[in-house]
């Protein structure tokens, strides 16, 4: 169950990271509220997952999911650059997330 909560927390982290762009410096009320709610939910679920999982693993996976997801959505939504090096490093981050899961013992 902790891993499910952690994945949901990571997905919500993607949501608030991308949401930051849409808040336009927290000047737009609806995107701001949705971003803040996503932040609170994401951290809350991370906290619940960390009750069972090692904190280094939980935090690393949470950050990794958020970073990879935000980078991919940045490419798709905001036309950020796509380079072979960038894709390679994103792939390494995915490998690191999988490695943390496999070696966590949970």
TrEMBL record:
<keyword id="KW-0812">Transmembrane</keyword>
<keyword id="KW-0813">Transport</keyword>
<keyword id="KW-1133">Transmembrane helix</keyword>
<keyword id="KW-1003">Cell membrane</keyword>
<dbReference type="InterPro" id="IPR000390">
    <property type="entry name" value="Small_drug/metabolite_transptr"/>
</dbReference>
<comment type="similarity">
    <text>Belongs to the drug/metabolite transporter (DMT) superfamily. Small multidrug resistance (SMR) (TC 2.A.7.1) family.</text>
</comment>
<feature type="transmembrane region" description="Helical">
    <location>
        <begin position="84"/>
        <end position="103"/>
    </location>
</feature>
<dbReference type="Pfam" id="PF00893">
    <property type="entry name" value="Multi_Drug_Res"/>
</dbReference>
<feature type="transmembrane region" description="Helical">
    <location>
        <begin position="57"/>
        <end position="78"/>
    </location>
</feature>
<feature type="transmembrane region" description="Helical">
    <location>
        <begin position="33"/>
        <end position="50"/>
    </location>
</feature>
<protein>
    <submittedName>
        <fullName>Quaternary ammonium compound efflux SMR transporter SugE</fullName>
    </submittedName>
</protein>
<dbReference type="InterPro" id="IPR045324">
    <property type="entry name" value="Small_multidrug_res"/>
</dbReference>
<dbReference type="InterPro" id="IPR037185">
    <property type="entry name" value="EmrE-like"/>
</dbReference>
<keyword id="KW-0472">Membrane</keyword>
């Amino acid at each position: 169950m902790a891993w499910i909560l952690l994945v949901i927390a990571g997905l919500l982290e993607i949501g608030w990271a991308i949401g930051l762009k849409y808040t336009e410096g927290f000047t737009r009320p609806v995107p701001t509220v949705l971003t803040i709610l996503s932040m609170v939910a994401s951290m809350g679920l991370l906290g619940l997952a960390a009750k069972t999982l090692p904190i280094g693993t939980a935090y690393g996976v949470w950050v990794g999911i958020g970073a990879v997801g935000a980078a991919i959505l940045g490419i798709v939504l905001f036309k950020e650059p796509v380079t072979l090096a960038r894709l390679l490093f994103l792939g390494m981050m995915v490998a690191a997330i999988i490695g943390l899961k496999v070696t966590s013992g949970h």
